[in-house]
Amino acid sequence: MAPAADTSPFPGGSPVGTVLVTGAASGLGAAVAAAVRDAGGTALALDRVPVEGYEGEVVDLADTRAAEAAVTRLAERAGGLDGVFTAAGTDRCGRLVDVPGAEWDTVLLVNLLGTAAVVRAALPFLERRGDEGGWGTVVTCASTLGVKAVSDATAYCASKFGVVGFTRALADELRGRVGVTLLIPGGMHTAFFDDRDEQYKPPPDAKLNRPEDTARSVLFALTQPRGCELKELLVTSSWEGSYP
Length: 244
Description:
Layout: E1 18-22, H1 27-38, E2 42-47, E3 55-58, H2 64-78, E4 83-86, H3 101-131, E5 137-141, H4 154-173, E6 179-185, H5 211-222, E7 232-235
Parallel strand pairs: 1-2, 1-4, 2-3, 4-5, 5-6, 6-7
Helix pairs in contact: 1-5, 2-3, 3-4
């Protein structure tokens, strides 16, 4: 008897596959890498420090050409990519005139240009997955401060508004070839706020999401079948103060 036809919406097995995660050493990136692994997929880690337990590359996303080269090396070693999640991000709070220009620039380099560089390098591998009958997916990470601007956050807002525009344009550019999802997360319990001045930290009673819960939404976006996309995901706590 001939074997039954494979009618799975995920040709080739696991719906998760191989996913490259930037900022995988901590916070939301670490939570997504763990979610990919726990769902039977393979997480590839890109960060400024080695990430124990994962195949990865150490690179500073502010060096965009080095970031592109690192993505290519990782994808080639892994035999391709099924997904990318760009969690890496940084911040520098303060009035525009008070933040040193080089530090302000770094926020844009990492959050926006680093995101674009990683996606640019990953696209040939994601499109190849589509040619093989699978479906590659990009999930970018913006912020509620990518849709709402606040004082003393010009660098961060500029970078995250940029990620929103970049992702929406990319989704139109890749229509029908690669899935593209824009994640707009609210505040989470991570180390992201640790090195801020006290005035820029969430208050002790702030109600923030767990990164593990937001990661579930990312995993859902990454595992949509071919041709089905979650265009945008807004994930916050019920008490989010920076949205709408």
